[in-house]
Amino acid sequence: MSTGSASRADAPPSTAEIMAVFLARDLRDGEQLQVGIGLPVPEAAVRLAHLLHGPNMELIFLGARMNVAHLERIPLPAFGWDNRIVRWAESFSDRGHRFDRTGDWKRRVFFIGGIQVDPYGNTNLIGVGSDYRKLDFRGPGSVGTPTLTSHVGRYHIVLNSHTARTFVPRCDFISTVGWGQGGADARTMLALPGGGPQYCVTPRAVMDFTPKEKRLRLRHVHPGHSVEEVRAHTGFELVVPDVVPETPLPDARELAVLRERVDPEGVLRRL
Question: What is the model's pTM?
Fold first, then answer.
């Protein structure tokens, strides 16, 4: 092993690696896993879970369903929205066929981002501003996320930043409905069959939702961050328990597989 490889293996986990391992531990064997655009952390989490404890997981990219646990490496840049991934496909379905079979989606887990998130997990990928025709900032758009988040068994919100501009009392636009205006029956009242958002993971913290109000609640802070810092960078009042532990660190095996088979180029360490 070269000196560079040794130093990489011995380096403490980055925040993005901690986030990826936290998400990977939540995923269960046999689930169908699908990731939105431009989200390297959940991309890594899906691959890591598949290699470590999910040999029967299905990874879904561009309509292709695949099981790639046999590959020596599943590097991050090779997937995403690269059509070359179909060489590993076990099956392929067009968009209409996938949406006709939403009843099968109870075991599907999805990951989305957002440019705004409100206290109930509603997200905005459309843009920032009061006039849609003259937005201050235009986002990528919904890109199919309303349908997916309405039907999947559960989904996670994963963000590349955590600021008061991201976490807002009210989204300028709503591209995906989380828990609406709050309440455990919010999604039932809106006739949304899916299980809704479970976690919101950012470079500062992990949040979940309170059982009754379905309001964002601080669950973990990442090493090097604090409850006070998270509160200061959130544009509304978070629910904060009396004790908020640090996010659990990856163990040696998780970190080795992540760095050697999932992210050998160090994408997560550069975020």
Answer: 0.92
